[in-house]
Each structure stands twice: as C-alpha cells, then as structure tokens.
Design a protein that fits this description.
This protein is α+β, with helices and mostly antiparallel strands. It contains eleven helices and nine strands. It has helices at about 40-50, 60-65, 95-100, 115-125, 180-190, 210-230, 240-255, 255-270, 280-295, 300-325, 335-365; strands at about 30, 70-80, 80-90, 105-110, 130-135, 155-160, 165-170, 175-180, 200-205.
Length: about 375
Amino acid sequence: MFFVSASPPGQSLSLDRLNLNRISETNSIHLPYRHIQSAHCETGVTAGLLQHHGIECSEPLCLGIGSGLYFVYLPFLKVGDLPLTSYRMPPGYIFRSVVKRLSVTWEDKRFRSPEEAMDALDAMLEKGVAVGCQTGIYWLPYFPSSMRFHFNAHNLIVFGREGDEYLISDPVFEQPVRCSREHLAQARFAFGPLAPRGRMYWIHQDNEVPASRLAVALREGLLHTCFIMNIPVGPIGVRGPRFLAWRIRKWFHRLPPRRIALVLGSIVRMQEEIGTDGAGLRFMFASCLQEAVKLLHIPDLEVLSREMMAIGDRWREFALHAVRAIKNPEEITRESLEAISELLVACSDAEYHFFRKLNETLKRSPQP
C-alpha cells in the first residue's frame, strides 16, 4: 500500500531548471525489489541492497560488519545551536565499510544540481538498478508532520517510478511509499549540516559473497568496532558518556533550566528518535553477536550478546530519567542532574569492560 501525506512548505531551493513534467505517465518502471522494514535507515538500506542482489546479510550483520556503533559528544560543534551528540559513525560510513569488507563492487556519486541528480537517478532505474539515496527527512512528504525535522542523513532506496512519482523503500516504514519528483529533488538537495548534494549509491549486479567471506568481514568489523570504541583520546567511544556526564553536572550552575531541558532533549532525540541510534543500535549489536555465534563458531559471543542487551537497557533508563527532567524544566535540581550523570557513567563503565572482553574473545578465537 502506498501513501503520501501533506506536503511540507517550500524551501529556498531553485528548481527552475528541473523539468518536473518530463516523465510520461505511461513511462513506468517497477523493479522486483522486496521491501524490508528495518530499525535504522542506513543499516536497513545496506541490507536491502545486498539482499536485492542475492547476498544474504541481515541488518544486524551490516551493523557489525560496518563498525557502525560509536559515541561522541562535542559541545564546541553545534548543530541547530545544540551540541553534537552521535551514537553511530558518520553517515555513509556503514555502507562503505560493509561493501569494502565484503569485496562488493559499488558506486557512490554526488551532483551539482537537482536536474543532474534526478536525471542520473532516472538513468539508473532505466538500467534496472535499485538506488540508495541520502535525503533530508524534512522534505519527504510521506513522513507525518510531527516526525519532520532538519536531518540530512536519512537513507532510502528508489526502486521504480510511475509517471511523476518515484517508488521508494524507506526502511523505517512498514510498506513502500511514493514521492513526487519535485519533493524527492528537494530532499536530495536539502541545505544545512550533512547536506546530501544529491548523493546516490548502488551495488553492481555481478557480486557473489560466500559464507566464508561473510565470516571474515564480520570478524574484521567487530574488531574495528572494539578499536574505535576504546580509542584513548578525546570524548569519543566508551569515554564519551563519562565526558557528557561531567558536563551535565556543571549545567545546574551554568545554564538556565529551559536550556538544560533543550540540550537534554537533543541528546535523547539522537538516542531514541533518529534511527534508534542509541539504545536501539545497542540492541541491534546484541542481535549481531547472536548471529556471529554460528558464523564465527564462538559460543562465548552468546554471553556477550546478553551483556550488550543489558547495556541497551541502561541507555533506555538514562533516556527515561532525562525525559522526566525535560517535561518539568523548572523542577530540575542538582540532585536530578547528578542522577542522570551517574547513569551515563554506568553506561560508560559497562561499555568499557564489554568491548575489552569482546576484543579479547575475538583475538583468542581461531580465524574463520
């Protein structure tokens, strides 16, 4: 079932050169793509494109192979006047890491104009190729208005068109959706941080990945995740939550209550709403370890999987306490901020020990 919600207001993007009526109503393309609802957009698109080409790789495995798990809090780098908080690697990193480790041939392009980008998309569809696109979520009309915000790293797959509408597999939706040529062009050329500049990417059709290669790639990805999470420099990886906890303790005397609520809200939003980046990715990583037990023949990963599930629960507990403070900013106290900070310290300590154990387990086990 396809649907389109109300259109968002126009943005200051010149589409004068984009001929929105160039496609004939009878000129339709519908590729045999199987839509799969996913937990996260980039891992979902990566898994979807791989499976479309006959490469059996689940979304959790894509997260592990792509070394997507991360944490960084940079108060000096602002996005929308709010400090940058991220629970995952930068946009595009997971897809590129997965296809490289699997030795899959692929292409990734950006464009100078909406017209050039949309013409290139049409050309790929006419060749029978499903294409991944990076978009600004605010300009996608099928999203409910309450879910639209200026985030320019939402990934989706275009697998056909009918007249002026494109058929889209958006991983966060239960069913495929439709989007007009004009709105898709706006989304692909949204302005601001992480501007997509029409980015689209696809996998070539002549790829085969044996199970042995999948196992090797998974081990490489998991080891690299351990490395980037345990980097002993800066407020990143397992040290990031502890640094954030230290900052939160200082807010009571430095920031007004409403500013505290606003910053806390942005942290929780990145954790729980934008692609389940925080606790959700921890749960997905636990699922990846469960699959890795059979692929890598390491039974100890089952125990580590349960540990990661418990860590995800701790992140959810942090989000719950933060939301309570956000709802009543005037009632924020030093004690409430201290309690929130302690939960972050607990997450940091748990992940520190977890990734050290995972690293040791992988290195002492035989290579696939």
